[in-house]
C-alpha cells in the first residue's frame, strides 16, 4: 500500500486498480487492459476522456492566467462569462452563483448562505434543513450531516446537531411502500409525513428542503409521479425553500438540462452544481441562489466589511475556462438530446434483465440507472449485508467494465453522455456476463432465500 488514505474505501482492503490513461468512454490500467467506463468516473466525465478541445482549453488558460482568486471582487472574464452562461441556463430566478471546488463544499456554502440570508431578513430562527433518508450530499461536515447514509455518519459523530438537520422519507416506492400500497398512496403517505414533520418542528424554524431530483449514491431512486408536485405544494404553503442538489443530475444526465426539468420541479430556489459542469476536467462547483436572496445579503456584508466566505480556488480561472467550454460543447453538439436518445436505449436494454432471478428492480431516467439485486424475487427480500453489489461490481471489472455498487445490492450505470448505441450494447453484454457470475456465486454460496 502507498501512503494514501484512500477516500470512501475499506481501509483494510488493498489497492484495487491502477489506471493509466483514458480515451473516449474507455480507460486503461497499468497492464494495458481496457475497461468501458459505465459510471463516467464518479458520475462526472460527461464528455469522456482525452477530449482535445477541453485539453486545449486547459492548456491555453494555464498559459494565459493559471491562477487568480476572487476575494475583494477581483475577477476575470472567463469567470464572469461562466456565471452569465450558468445564470441563463438554470431555472432559478435571477440566479447568482458562488463558485467552489466540489459538490460537498458547494453544499456547505449553501448551508452558510441560508443562515446569512435568514439572518439578513430578520428570521434567525429559520435555519433547519429537511433532508431525506438515504440522501447523498457529500462529506464535508455540513454536507455529510445532510447525507442520510450510515457509513458517512458512523465514527464521525455526525450529523452535527447544531446544524438542525431534519430527516424525512426517501421516495423509494419499491423499498418503502407498505404491503398493498399503490404509488399514489405511497406518495400521499410520505408527503403527509413531511407536512407533519414541518408542523411538529414549526415552519418558522425551517429554512429549506434539499433533494437530489434523482438520487445517485443511494441507489438511483426515481420518485413516483406526482411526488415533487406534492412536496413543492407543501413547501410553498409553509414558506420553505426548495434546494435542488443537481451535482449528478445537472447537465443532461437525465436527458434534459437539469434533473429538475425531468422531474417537473418548478423553479427551485437554490441549486448545487458540480461534476458534469466541467466534465470533470478540472474541479469546480457552483452554489446557485435566487437573486433576491443574494440582494438581501449585500447590506449585512457591508456592515461587517466583507461577505466572510470564500475559497482560495473559488472561481479558479482554469476551472472556469474548461467549464465554459464544456457548456459550449453541450450546446453546440446537442449533447443533452443525444443523452436523451441514448438514455431511452440504455433503459430499454437494461429492462431486458427484468425476468432474471436476481433482479428485483430496474430503475432510472436518461443515462442514469440502477439494477437492484434481491435474495427473493417474489418478496423483494434484500441480501443480508449487501455484499452482492460488491461482488457484481468486481465481476464487471473482471469483464472489462467499470461500474459501481450502490446502496449495498444495486449496481449503477451512468456512462459518459457521449456513449453510442454500440457502446451501450457492450455495457449490456458485459453486465450479462457479470450477472451470470453473480448468480453462480449466489447459487454456490446458497444465498438466495426461497
Ligand atoms: C448529489 C450529490 N451531491 C453532492 C456530492 C458531493 O460532491 P463531491 O464529491 O464533489 O464533494 C455528490 C457526489 O457524488 C452527489 O452525488
From TrEMBL:
Keyword Transferase: yes
PROSITE patterns recorded: AA_TRANSFER_CLASS_3 (PS00600)
Keywords: Aminotransferase, Pyridoxal phosphate, Transferase
Names of the cofactor(s): pyridoxal 5'-phosphate
Keyword ATP-binding: no
Coiled coil: none
SUPFAM superfamilies per the UniProt record, alphabetical: PLP-dependent transferases
Gene Ontology terms: biological process: biotin biosynthetic process; gamma-aminobutyric acid metabolic process
Source species, domain of life: Bacteria
An example Gene Ontology molecular-function term: pyridoxal phosphate binding
Family: Belongs to the class-III pyridoxal-phosphate-dependent aminotransferase family.
PANTHER family: ADENOSYLMETHIONINE-8-AMINO-7-OXONONANOATE AMINOTRANSFERASE (PTHR42684:SF3)
Protein name: Aminotransferase class III-fold pyridoxal phosphate-dependent enzyme
Organism: Pontibacterium sinense
Lineage of the species this protein comes from: Bacteria, Pseudomonadati, Pseudomonadota, Gammaproteobacteria, Oceanospirillales
